[in-house]
Amino acid sequence: MFTVKDYRDALAEGYLLASKCRRCGAVQLPPRPICPRCGSGDLESLKAPKRGRVAAYTVIHVPPSRFKGEEPYAVAIVELLEGVRVSGRMLDVSEADLRVGLEVEADVIKLGEEPLLCFRPLKRP
Ligand SMILES: [Zn+2]
């Protein structure tokens, strides 16, 4: 059984914990106790890949209080595997360079005690 705490603990260690259904193969991120596709409770843990592509994004101009003073900043929905999407703060990219399809890599920063998932553009060698 996966919990939000498992997901946060994994984030704090720098990886993305997902669950994968043993019956139908669907992947959930963050992990779920029950497969939303087929209802099975037979799930295994999976480390999600850290690279993906921006599927959508928005620029935040009026942030929640804990992010006050950091606006404007971008939040992206990133597709890590087919159909597996997660949202995270974008770092190291200007609004002008941010676009759908941009290749990004996940990183975890600390916000106080809280691990925060963020993404940076993938650097080409
Ligand atoms: Zn399933």
Comma- or semicolon-separated keywords:
single chain; 125 residues; mainly beta; OB fold (Dihydrolipoamide Acetyltransferase, E2P); 2 domains; five-stranded mixed barrel; three-stranded antiparallel β-sheet; 7% helix; binds zinc ion
Tell me what you see in this structure.
The longest helix is centred in the N-terminal third of the chain and has 9 residues, at 4-12. A hairpin with a 5-residue loop joins strand 1 (16-21) and strand 2. The chain is globular. The chain is mainly beta. It has a five-stranded mixed barrel. It has a three-stranded antiparallel beta sheet with strand order 2-1-3. The chain has two domains: 4-47, no CATH class; 49-121, OB fold (Dihydrolipoamide Acetyltransferase, E2P) (Beta Barrel), CATH 2.40.50. The model has no long low-confidence stretch (mean pLDDT 92). It has one helix spanning 4-12; strands at residues 16-21, 27-28, 43-48, 51-60, 73-81, 84-90, 103-111, 114-121. Bound molecules: zinc ion (ZN). Zinc ion is lined by residues 21, 23-24, 26, 35, 37-38, 40.
